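Tokens for chain A. Residues wanted.
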């Protein structure tokens, strides 16, 4: 299966590139197979078009993990994700994973945090995933509530207990992505 990984050079993207050999990485920083940010990705550019024409699935992890980032970053993420899903529709991509978070629907351990633009953007992504699937029983788009993926085991060990409770190690991250992509 050929997977396009948007955000391929980030903390999660690098792990996914290693776990899915043959994937096509897109990121705004050098080192990706296709260098472009999500918001300015040209879906008609020859190499982008060729990637989408051959892909079996897309995994999008190119949003900011910074809960406190300026609202404009989260607006850009929503707009970029809408453009991405429109491109996936255009190219007939059946399997798509887009990022969500527990912040989309705060529960007990998140209750101390007020709703913010980050959490609202993740709820929008969840609705976008549902919308992508509507009327297309052959599609499998999932807004995966990705847990916290620490930069290192040492960072995970030093984190506050409430954050450790949502920690995803590499094995869990890869297993969850595989399940979200479907068979």
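Reply:
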């Amino acid at each position: 299966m050929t997977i396009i990984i948007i955000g391929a050079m980030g903390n999660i993207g690098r792990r996914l590139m290693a776990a899915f050999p043959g994937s096509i990485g897109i990121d705004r920083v050098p080192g990706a197979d296709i260098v472009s940010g999500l918001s300015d990705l040209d879906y008609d550019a020859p190499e982008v078009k060729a990637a989408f024409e051959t892909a079996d699935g897309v995994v999008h992890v190119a949003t900011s993990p910074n809960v406190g980032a300026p609202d404009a970053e989260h607006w850009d993420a929503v707009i970029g994700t809408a453009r991405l899903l429109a491109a996936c529709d255009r190219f007939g991509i059946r399997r798509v994973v887009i990022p969500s978070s527990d912040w989309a629907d705060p529960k007990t351990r998140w209750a101390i945090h007020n709703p913010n633009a980050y959490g609202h953007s993740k709820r929008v992504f969840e609705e976008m995933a549902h919308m992508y699937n509507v009327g297309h029983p052959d599609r499998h788009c999932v807004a995966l509530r990705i847990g916290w993926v620490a930069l290192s085991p040492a960072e995970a060990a030093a984190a506050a207990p409430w954050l450790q409770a949502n920690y995803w190690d590499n094995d869990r991250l890869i297993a969850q992505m595989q399940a979200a992509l479907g068979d």
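Residues 28 and 37 are 4 Å apart (CA to CA). The longest helix spans residues 71-91.
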